Amino acid sequence: MSVTAIKKSENVAMQLVTDKIKSRLAVESHAKAVGDGIAIAPSVKPAKKANGIFTITFSYEQNLHRTQVQSTQSGYGTPVYKVALSSSLNPESNICWLQRNTDGWKVLLGTNMDAKLIDALTAAIEQQA
C-alpha cells in the first residue's frame, strides 16, 4: 500500500499509525479468541502487489504468524503459491509450494509439513485470493 503524506498537521500521521495499531490488535485478539483453531483476519486485507506477492496472517499453534506468498501462473492455468516459512513453523523447509486442485490443496514442494499448518496456510491464501 502506497501512502503519500502531505505535511498539513501532525494529526494526519498519528491517525494512520493509530489505525494500523488498531487493525493489528483486532487481528491478534481474533487469533487469541479462536485458540487452536485456524484464525485469519478477514477485515485486514492488504492489496496484492503487481508482481503477485502478498502477505497473509494466520494462527498456528496458538501463535499469530505473518508471511509472504507469491502467486505464479502454472502451465495448467491454476496458480501455484510459493509460501515463505520461518524455521519456527517448519524447521525442515523454508519454502513450500501449494496448488489448489479440484480435490483440494496439494503440496508440490515442502517436506514433513503438519496438516494443521497446511490448513492454516491454505485458508489464509483463499481469503486473499
TrEMBL record:
* Domain of life where this protein originates: Bacteria
Q: What is this protein called?
A: Uncharacterized protein
